[in-house]
Design a protein that fits this description.
This is Class Ib ribonucleoside-diphosphate reductase assembly flavoprotein NrdI. By secondary structure, the chain is of the alpha/beta class. Helix content is 34%, strand content 21%.
């Protein structure tokens, strides 16, 4: 299982490193990379540009064929805008919103993320 992510402040990068999954960090300026294995996208919450950048990546070549779902990172201070990029992408691509976490997540968030991934049958995580 591969985690594809975008990290502007380092919060998502920190979370991903703690999961132990193989990962690929998208470039904010050139997200057009081809992935040929199942992956989950972790999207931070900033502005509508994030949705467009990640959509460009997903729509590139056959990436959409390997997309399994989305995870969102954000701040609960933004109420209904919490993790809105991941929620929007989930609706757009009709893939599950697997998990959300605040900022770089807690140790419990990492544990619960792995449980959610297993429940969706996306990967076998120890």
């Amino acid at each position: 299982m591969l985690i594809v992510y975008l990290s502007l402040t380092g919060n998502v990068r920190n979370f991903v490193r703690r999961t132990g999954f193989d990962s690929f960090e998208l470039s904010y300026t050139n997200p057009l990379s081809e992935i040929n294995e199942d992956f989950i996208v972790i999207a931070p919450s900033y502005d509508d540009d994030i949705t467009e950048i990640i959509s460009s990546f997903i729509d590139y070549k056959n990436n959409q064929d390997y997309l399994k779902g989305f995870v969102g990172s954000g701040s609960l201070n933004y109420d209904d805008k919490y993790c809105f990029n991941a929620k929007d992408l989930s609706l757009k691509y009709r893939k599950p919103l697997i998990f959300t976490f605040e900022f770089s997540g807690t140790d419990n968030d990492v544990i619960n993320f792995k449980k959610e991934v297993n429940e969706f049958g996306i990967a076998s995580v120890k």
